[in-house]
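Dear colleagues,

As part of the handover before I leave the project, I'm documenting each prediction I ran so the next person doesn't have to rerun anything. This entry is a single chain, and its sequence is reproduced below.
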Amino acid sequence: MSRSGVIKLGEFLITVGLFFLLYEYVNWGAIQSNIKAAYVMGSGILLIIAYIISVKAKSIAIQEFAHLLSIVSAVIVVNIIIASLVCPLSIIGGDIVKERTDVLEGDLGDFKDVSFDMEIVNGCIKLRSWNEPNYRIVVVTKAMVWSEKGAEKMLNSTSIKIDKEKSESEIGLNLMVDVPSTNWFGVSTDIEVYLPKNMSYDLELETANGLIELDGINGSFASLENVNGDIVIEDVNFSNICAETVNGRIQASLTSNEAKLKTVNGKIDLETGNASGRYKITTVNGGVIVKLHFFNGVGYHVKASTSMGNVDIDGPDFLFEKKDRKQQEAWTEDFELMETKVHVIAETVNGDIEVRK
């Protein structure tokens, strides 16, 4: 290896080692945004100085010292960027946090069928059932900016309202959170909704950078979409439900005639009910765990496959049509004679699939 090659290799190893040392021992996420900005500008100044030194200096030692300065500057900036991507508000927003709580309440009248639509950015959506006849929506809006005045202005520019649409048989609720596009990265909105029990709901919920959670809600249709966040479904019953997330997991305990659960970069945990239904589970870069309840009169048909991983179907009275490490298909004994039939189809590209009682 030539002398220049040895020097370049040494600089590369120093860069990698310095990156991991700074990433491990410096809490970049805790550094205030104005200090981060100062670090970035200072690193830019160091790079300019290092470039001038390397051009003007005749000594090789001084030139290599300039290269080391540029390495240190670049590593600091990269660590700041990585920490800020983990928490985007820390770089785009500021260190002043103010919040506002809005409470919306209303009566659903004599309607038994209710549709509820909501779409937000940067926030959590939680829907729960309760024993009251009215609905209650609690909206907590947070602004992260550089000054008190800026926080007040940002909160005042964010509005929340609910529209009601009534037909002969159904009432529709549409919750709208209006955040100016210039404030998307400085405002987060967490919404908690309490809905009366013993009603049937159609839901369309969508968020990014947050959580979607359903607890004790029943209905005919539910569509749940998330980006960079989890979906948690607990004790719900929908005729048709579709839950999809990117960069998040799905944890579900549900009963459904037709359920579709899909993730990219996340695992799926499913616990099925004891009513007839079809559950389609798809994930990329994530494992799947399915828990079945073997009640009398309930039959199961399970089909599972993975490209990179293992499949394991375990339960009493399973008859295997196909059984190998990556693909398995099994039926419970006398499946066609059962009053209740549950079909489970699970597919993953990179991960294990486990089906158990």
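Residues 211-356 form one domain. The first helix runs from residue 3 to 25.

All the best with the project,
I.
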